[in-house]
Design a protein that fits this description.
The chain is mainly β. The protein has 2 domains: 196 residues, Immunoglobulin-like (Sandwich), CATH 2.60.40; 103 residues, SOR catalytic domain (Immunoglobulin-like). Helices cover 4% and strands 44% of the residues. It is built from 1 helix and 19 strands. Strands 1, 3, 5, 6, 9 and 10 form a 6-stranded mixed beta sheet that branches. A hairpin with an 8-residue loop joins strand 11 and strand 12. The chain is elongated. It comes from Streptomyces apricus. This is Lipoprotein. Keywords: Signal.
Length: 314
């Protein structure tokens, strides 16, 4: 089970150490690859010598040298928000460009590059999201590659708090082990190259929303009043249930029979307290058609439209 981890004691990409996962081979070759904790060990050593300059200035002290590589053009989920419900695993794509020195062999079996997400500051992230598999890269030229990866979210396994909804930043890193065994206790880190970048991109993580509508009575006599009720709810990542989204502006819309376009009728506020998320208003019935509610969304919750409810005016 993946559980939420406390990462206050680590910095930047070192949040990886709090999310160690079994080694997974992205290209299916079957060769062993380092776990996130083993990668974090390399980054930890690099951070410890962060005050030193030069690509190999700290090599004698057994810390990684600065790898000639960088990541750009990062897109998470094709630029769309990541939306997670209460139980289902969500896996979204990441794409990015890897630029590197001609002497960096990105096709080596022990070269790894990744893009991850973090909430809060880069130095002291509140939470990190990673992919189970390492990204794969396609060589474009001697110094450039196009890469694809994933980010995995597990809302049903205690990974997220409701406060995690909102904007997340992306960080990137690359490591070239250059033949050193990442599992070895006596690994010679001076032969390992590393690079990391903060804030290479961003995305929103949102709580999945639901919206319902019911217009009654039906059928109804012309010019009589009908009541349109509904409910706006969203995922609660701490209870794994859906709960009413309170005090939100929701539009009641109507589509006349025989047409294809909804028009706004009025704005309704979702209820609070014991009526959390509930919607209720009245309108005059004049012609046959269909009512629906439409929610524009917020930074933490995606937009959603209810299904339509048709009325028969007699």
């Amino acid at each position: 089970m993946r559980i939420r981890a406390t990462v206050a004691a680590v910095t930047g990409a070192l949040a990886l150490s709090a999310f160690a996962v079994p080694a997974a081979q992205a290209d299916g070759s079957g060769d062993s690859v380092p776990s996130r904790a083993e990668v974090a060990k390399v980054l930890d050593a690099a951070h410890a010598a962060s005050g030193k300059s030069g690509a190999r200035a700290a090599a004698a002290d057994g810390v990684p040298y600065a790898l000639d590589a960088s990541v750009s053009n990062v897109k998470v989920n094709a630029g769309k928000a990541i939306v997670a419900g209460t139980t289902k695993q969500v896996t979204v794509p990441t794409t990015f460009t890897l630029t590197h020195g001609a002497d960096v062999d990105i096709t080596a079996a022990d070269f790894f590059v990744d893009v991850e997400l973090y909430k809060g500051s880069y130095d002291e992230p509140e939470m990190s999201l990673i992919g189970e598999l390492w990204p794969t890269c396609t060589v474009v030229s001697t110094t450039k590659a196009s890469c694809k990866g994933t980010i995995d979210v597990y809302p049903g396994e205690g990974q997220l708090l409701n406060s995690d909804a909102g904007t997340w930043s992306a960080n990137a890193y690359a490591i070239a082990f250059n033949g050193e065994d990442p599992n070895a206790d006596d690994i010679d880190l001076s032969k390992v190259g590393y690079m990391e970048q903060a804030k290479v991109g961003s995305t929103k993580l949102q709580r999945y929303s639901k919206l319902t509508v019911n217009a009654s009575p039906e059928p109804v006599k012309k010019n009589k009043t009908i009541t349109v009720t509904g409910s706006l709810t969203r995922a609660n990542w701490e209870t794994n249930k859906y709960a009413g989204y309170t005090a939100q502006s929701v539009k009641l819309q109507f589509k006349k029979k025989g047409t294809s376009t909804y028009t706004d009728v009025k704005t309704v506020k979702s209820g609070t307290g014991s009526s959390a998320g509930k919607l209720k208003t009245t309108v005059t019935a004049t012609v046959d058609g269909t009512f629906r509610y439409a929610f524009a969304g917020t930074s933490t919750t995606p937009a959603v439209n209810s299904a339509g409810d048709a009325i028969d005016v007699q």
